[in-house]
Amino acid sequence: MKEVLNLENNKDKKTTMLNLIQTEVQIEDLPEGEFILVEVDHLGNPMGWEGKTLLNAIGSLVRRHQCAPINYISWKDMPESYIVNMFELIQSKFRFIPKLTEQTREILKDNMSGKWSQFKHDLKSKAYDESKTEEEMISNIPDTRVDPSQFRTLVYHWCSNKGKEISSKNKRNPSHYDDLHCMGTKNLPRLIHEMDELKKYMGEAESSNDIDWKNDIYAKVKGPERRGRVRCLGKLPRQASSSVTSQSSNAEIRLQKLENLFGNLVSVLQTRFSEDSQINSILQAVVQEYSK
Question: 269-278 burial string, b = 16+ CB within 10 Å, else e?
């Protein structure tokens, strides 16, 4: 019997899967005989850590020349057989709640299309040079996952009149946008889902006075901290001295910075959720504990 894996509720498995979530996921790297259980919202969008893992896996698939060849000008020209094969690979390692619907399939196909187009754009930004000949560009493949024959066709397209016309049109398109996308790689449905999860866990935490920083509300929703990083601050500075005095001094400085940042964060949250009495009561308790 194959095991269904839910990263949100399985602490042991969550740790072993962390590298898959944070890096480009290879389908074959997922443990043999296990599935990752992906929850989707009412619109069909993948949610949570499992959803992120799924989207990372799709990003890995469309960069493989065997799965999504780059010698097609547009995603619309991609033969359906390649898309079907990628969905078979996905369904061999992922299960969906509710079951995979046509709505979710279309969302995943759009994600495939976007990541495939972005990969081709990245290749062009690294390899295309108007001062070089076609053969010179072809001889300098910027990514080991690229098939040489497919790359040759792609370079010929870049240098063709049609390719240059398409490129010129694409460069002009952003000037027509009224609003620019500035949310990063996380889409709006996932942000909303995380906020809902935070509210749910904060409600559960009202009855408990215990503080477990490794399994607090934020960690349950966003996942454990990465090694060598402090949440909301980024990478830890490397110690230049190994002396106890220096380490203690640096620790005190970092602690003071964390306290200041935490105080600012609470103030922002109080302003942001000023009309939510439940969240405000929790924040007020945090302020009182913080001021002791």
Answer: bbeebeeeee
**CA–CA separation, 269 vs 279, rounded Å?**
9
Residues of the chain with pLDDT under 70: 1-31, 174-188, 201-248, 289-292
CA dist., res. 134 & res. 270, Å (int): 59
**pLDDT digits over 225-272, tens only?**
666 666 555 555 554 444 555 566 777 777 777 777 777 777 777 777
Closest to 96 measured CA to CA, from 86, 104, 106, 87 = 104
pTM over 0.70: no
Break the chain into its structural domains and give their ranges: 3-170, 187-230, 244-292
Q: Are strands 3-5 and 34-39 parallel, antiparallel or unpaired?
A: parallel
The answer for residues whose C-beta is within 8 angstroms of residue 163's C-beta and 6 or more apart is 157
Q: Are 91 and 100 in contact (CB under 8 A)?
A: yes
